[in-house]
Design a protein that fits this description.
0% of the residues lie in helices and 57% in strands. The chain is mainly beta.
Length: 237
């Protein structure tokens, strides 16, 4: 076992690129580590009160900060290239597809940004409560909301393709495998949808509190439960 020491606060997010690990914390600092030696390579600082989320796309590091800003960094030079500004609340989630970045904050909209020009392309409206999670599958953007619905959008036309209803609580998280969409909710269930026909296939029950996160590996679905459930459940899919 090895340790990477350097953060003097809570570590909130991780991502990796080649043999580098990127970590963000409540101190507003991004640290870069060598995954072979566990040594710290560099420190990235922006005007921020906390790094909430990190993701890498096309050799660019995107950091979601507590000051409502999304920053873009060059992974070769570690310099800040640009920033996306326009959110009025703390950004909750981002996802990237081709040359577009999709982001949501505490309101009911989804913002779309061009990752080449860093300009705002469009704002999607349709949800009636806060949008909490996003994912992309082929040419479809999928959004989950506190209005208990899942919306599917065309990534080219930005139009709503379908609205999936069935959850009786907020939609917190997604995972996708082939033509199946898995959604976790505060109704303690995971629902399985056909992403082509938009029909509900199954409902997975077992958690005793909110389903907060999902991931898939080797044809198994892993789900994490909110306190006091506190379990990770494994499902054969």
């Amino acid at each position: 076992m090895a340790y990477m020491n350097g953060h003097n606060c809570s570590v909130l997010c991780l991502t990796h690129h080649k043999n580098n690990l990127y970590s963000g914390g409540t101190d507003g600092i991004i640290r870069i580590w060598n995954t072979d030696t566990c040594e710290k390579l560099a420190t990235l600082r922006g005007r921020t009160i906390g790094v909430i989320c990190l993701t890498i796309h096309n050799n660019k590091l995107y950091s979601v900060d507590g000051d409502n800003t999304i920053r873009v960094w060059n992974t070769d030079t570690n310099e800040q290239i640009a920033s996306f500004m326009g959110h009025t609340y703390s950004v909750r989630c981002i996802t990237l597809h081709r040359n577009k970045l999709y982001s949501v904050d505490g309101d009911i909209t989804i913002r779309i940004w061009n990752t080449d020009t860093y300009e705002l392309i469009a704002t999607l409206e349709g949800h009636t409560h806060c949008v909490f999670c996003l994912t992309v599958h082929e040419n479809k953007l999928v959004s989950g909301s506190w209005d208990n619905t899942i919306r599917v959008w065309n990534t080219d036309t930005h139009e709503t393709i379908a609205t999936l209803e069935g959850h009786t609580g907020s939609v917190n998280c997604f995972a996708i495998l082939k033509n199946k969409l898995y959604s976790g909710s505060t109704d303690n269930t995971i629902r399985v949808w056909n992403i082509e026909t938009y029909e509900e296939i199954d409902t997975l029950r077992g958690h005793t509190c909110w389903v907060q996160c999902l991931t898939i590996h080797d044809n198994k679905l892993y789900s994490g439960g909110e306190y006091p459930d506190d379990t990770i459940r494994v499902w054969n899919i």
